[in-house]
Amino acid sequence: MKKLLSDWKGYLMTGISYMLPIVIGGSLLVAITKILGLCFGITSFDTYTSGVWYYVNQVTNVGWTAIGLLDLVLAGYVAYAIGDKPALAAGFVGGAIASSSNTGFIGALIAGFVAGYSARWCTEKIKVNEKYESIKPLVITPLISTLLVAVISAIILAVPLSWLNKSLLHWIKAMCTNGTSSVVLALVMGAMIGSDLGGPINKAAWAAGNVLLAENVYTPAMITNVAIAGIPLGYAVATTLQKNKFSSELIDAGRSDWFMGFIGITEGAIPFTLINPLKLIPLNMIAGACGSATAIILGAQAKIPPVGGIYGFITIHNGWAYLVGLAVCALIIGAFAPLLVDFTNTAVDELSTDDKNIDITFE
Amino acid sequence: MDFVAITSCPAGLAHTPMAAKALENAAKELGLEAKIEQQGAMGLKNEITLDEAKSAKFLLIGSDQKIEKMGRFEGKPVLRVDINMCIKKPKLVIEKCTKAVDAKLREQ
Predict the structure, then answer these.
(1) Of A41, A161, A317, B103, which alpha carbon lies 20 to 30 A from B47's?
(2) Among residues B6, B9, B86, B87, which one is catalytic?
(3) At what angle do helices A141-149 and A85-100 cross, to 10 degrees?
(4) Which residues in chain B are contacts of A10 at CB distance < 8 A?
(5) What region holds the PTS EIIB type-2 domain (chain B) (predicted)?
(6) In Å, how far are A226, A317, A323 from A222, measured between CA atoms?
(7) Domain spans of chain A?
(8) Which stretches of chain A are assigned E, i.e. beta strand?
(9) Distant-in-sequence, close-in-space partners of A303: CB < 8 Å, separation ≥ 6
(10) Which fold has domain B3-107?
(11) Closest to A68 (Cα-Cα) out of A217, A172, A222, A215
(12) Which residues in chain B are contacts of A268 at CB distance < 8 A?
């Protein structure tokens, strides 16, 4: 059971990792053209039928086209993770059905799993005469897996899933727009990001934010982005302001944390947190929660899919609030981490020869 | 070649190279010959060739992700380990895997 769940998590993460470049490419196109327009006092390009702004609008539309591919890519690459290349076709089809039948990311994920497992089953279980071996990946697998996706996604699950999807989104959207509950959401998700820095809890919050992008719900991703960039920035700030409190290795790590924070990679905080996880994990969680909540309270809103990192503020409505949130998160860590922990002695603790919690599995 | 390893994480930016470097250094300290491939955001980095794959005793995968080009390692013992462990305790990971593979090969 534990193995199955960790497999599923791996498939989901693979899907998301292929989806990300499309989100980033698409959102940046939309954001940059919007800002360009705003610089010239234009809030909507729709009225332009020719000239420069018409072309700028075309670029914006391409950005939205990219964002519209999220379900498709997510389902396709979840399927690919499970059933390899033969599963890709049915996965894409399933993702497209999910978009068109409004079953959203839940539909896309289910379609991805159906496509992946059915293609894998075909590859492993169906035996054909060696002479006709090539017929399997070319005809049998695509046919069976796509047919199964069609039956399950388009016929059996379309209605109940689209209902479920709508209610779930309604609930999440309500939570994101209501003042108090959106702050609670920010506190929880910010703390999750800070908890294990790239481990399962962090990735659960991150994945939730990313998957919801496919549903035009952008607030959770924005919330996580604040903590993701703010936490490594905190250690960058700490090493810059209080150099004498860090070993030379950590000062190097702090320098690269400016970059990690700039593009939004929480893992940059790992080398520091490892020095004393018992004290620093709670600090990271508090800083992440406060930073995210500050951004929400000050009115940061995500109207297009938000991009992470410091420069991500250009994709945020009230981007300054996002930046203040980042600063709050970074300053909490920058101020308190050197007070709580001695960073001058950084011999890596490989002295403990306890390998019990190293899980290895044969494939 | 004592072993080959592949590291991979969802974003492919931070954990992947960190784990690869940790394993590389640990292998060096243990006096083992190893090659570590990264499957990150840039695609395959430091790719393991077919010959290297054939000469290795086992493949260590530091990831819960989908790994590309697994065809190279057909018939090899393949182990999966959490990528965080590869960063935190690379030496212990390598030692434990080597022992496990030795034990398995003896059984056969």
Answers:
(1) B103
(2) B9
(3) 20
(4) 63-66
(5) 1-99
(6) 7, 11, 12
(7) 2-164, 178-340
(8) 360-362
(9) A218, A317
(10) Rossmann fold (3.40.50)
(11) A215
(12) 14
Chain B: closest CA distance from residue A48 (Å)? 38
Nearest Cα of chain B lies from the Cα of A53 at a distance, in angstroms, of 34
Per-residue pLDDT tens digits for A14-35: 888 888 888 788 888 888 888 8
Residue-by-residue DSSP string for A38-77: HHTT-S--TT--SSHHHHHHHHHHHHHHHHHTHHHHHHHH
Mean pLDDT across chain A: 87
Domain boundaries, chain B: 3-107
Question: Quick one: CA dihedral A52, A54, A57, A61, positive or negative?
Answer: negative
Token pair for A151 = 């039956």
Question: Can you tell me the distance from the alpha carbon of A306 to that of A312, in angstroms, rounded to the nearest whole number?
Answer: 7
Q: Quick check: ipTM above 0.90?
A: no
Q: Kindly report whether the global pTM for this prediction surpasses the value 0.80.
A: no
B35 phi-psi bin (left φ>0, alpha ψ -120 to 50, beta other): beta
CB-nearest partner of B80 from A203, A274, A360: A360
B97 catalytic, yes or no? no
Structure tokens given for B14: 């931070």
Contact criterion met (CB below 8 Å) for A80 and A14: yes
The torsion defined by the Cα of A94, A98, A103 and A106, in degrees rounded to 10, comes to 50
